[in-house]
Amino acid sequence: MRRWFLVLVALLLLASLALAAAAYAEEIEGTGTLWAKGAGLAVLRGDGEVTIEGRGVAVVIVTGAETLTAEGHGRRWERPGGTIFFGWSGQIYAQGEKMVVRMLGGKIEFTAEGTGTAFLRGRGVYTIDGQHGRWSPEGVRLELGGSEE
């Protein structure tokens, strides 16, 4: 019973992440490196690699990864639409083309390298190609390559 409850919660969070990301469907491409740490919602889209330092991150959903490894503990579900990590403590590494990584929680920290976009909503800080910034409650959309919209 508890497992079904956790799966239901994860699926509801997945649905809310998809709606949040859909509002920002028009994205500009860029290439570079992004490091971010905060609390809220982070959505990454593009080609490259992402390393997530999980400290009990509520939900991480990875779709389109050609390589996906995870060290640590928490719940992991393989689904036809991607892999869901729930309450993960440890490291998650994903690499691929046309990959989407969605993170929701109070302790999000990641580094992304490659080509694509990032959307950060909540509270936190980021560094993109040497420039520093802050997440916002309305959301910050970044292109890997240094621009902000």
Describe the structure.
- The protein has 149 residues and is mainly beta.
- It has one domain (2-143).
- The chain has 1 helix and 5 strands; from the N terminus they run H-E-E-E-E-E.
- The chain has one helix spanning 2-22, and strands at 31-63, 67-79, 82-128, 131-134, 140-143.
- Strands 1, 2, 3, 4 and 5 form a 5-stranded antiparallel beta sheet that branches.
- Strand 3 (82-128) and strand 4 form a beta hairpin.
- The protein is globular, with a radius of gyration of 14 Å.
Pattern of helices and strands = HEEEEE
| Structural class estimated from helices and strands | mainly beta
Biggest pleated sheet: 5 strands, antiparallel
Beta percentage is over 45%
User: What is the average per-residue confidence, as pLDDT, rounded to a whole number?
Assistant: 81
Number of separate helices? 1
Oligomer: single chain
Structure summary, number of beta strands? 5
> Which outline best applies?
globular
SSE layout and pairing:
Elements: H1 2-22, E1 31-63, E2 67-79, E3 82-128, E4 131-134, E5 140-143
Antiparallel strand pairs: 1-3, 2-3, 3-4, 3-5
